[in-house]
Amino acid sequence: MSRLAWAVAALCAAAFLAALAFSGGRGGPGLTPFVPKGLLTIPAEDVREIDVVTSRGHWHFVRAQGSWRATQGVTTAGFEERLDNALRLLRNSGPDRILTSAEVAQAGTAQFGLAPPRLRIIVGGPDSSSFAISFGAANPMGLSYYARLDGSSEIALLPAFVAEEWERTGGAP
Q1: Edge to edge, what strands does the sheet with 144-149 contain?
Q2: Are 130 and 47 in contact (CB under 8 A)?
Q3: Coil, helix or strand at residue 19
Q4: Which among 172, 143, 168, 160 has a CA at the least distance from the CA of 83?
Q5: Taking a C-beta distance cutoff of 8 angstroms, is the pair 36, 87 a contact?
């Protein structure tokens, strides 16, 4: 190939890259805005109080002037950041799967470890709105935990990192 052809090809490639840079890249699928897929429908910034109940204790947190304080239970350093992270995960991380009430009845409820739950979260939002979820046992692979919303007959499989962040919020290392 001649030198002129290589120069023209390089110039075309540079022009194409410049056009991409100035236009913001390629459009198309995969560039949709983020939409939370978690079970918590109350926006994290609207949450006013949280109760965390485990076999090790009960913690009650209240948000006042933009920061969290514990009104019940002993906390460890950095609990505010862990609490915000746990809220964000519960709102943003959707279930891996939701078992219908028929599937739950067929399998038997005992295997899900929800009676009693290993972890219970009650979130209070504005205007007395509330959200309550109970976490049970881990699935056989240990990658998800069974969870049930109050008033629901379905059981969700939530990623393990969601439940583990709530357990750390309650004071576990």
Answers
A1: 67-72, 57-64, 49-54, 119-124, 130-138, 144-149, 155-159, 97-99
A2: no
A3: helix
A4: 168
A5: no
**Other residues' Cβ atoms within 10 Å of the Cβ of residue 127:** 7
Q: How many CB atoms lie within 10 A of CB 96?
A: 14
pLDDT in single tens digits along all 173 residues of the chain: 688 888 888 888 888 887 777 776 566 666 677 788 999 999 988 999 999 998 888 999 999 888 898 899 888 888 889 999 999 999 999 999 999 999 999 988 889 999 999 999 999 998 888 999 999 999 999 999 999 999 999 999 999 999 999 988 866 54
| DSSP states along 130-152 | EEEEEEEEEPTTSSEEEEEETT-
Q: Which two tokens stand for residue 149?
A: 């919303």
Q: How far apart are CA 14 and CA 127, in angstroms?
A: 57
CB-neighbour burial class of residue 100 (10 A; exposed 0-12, middle 13-18, buried 19+): exposed
Calculate the CA 113 to chain-centre distance. Answer: 21
Q: 147 has which bridge partners?
A: 135, 156
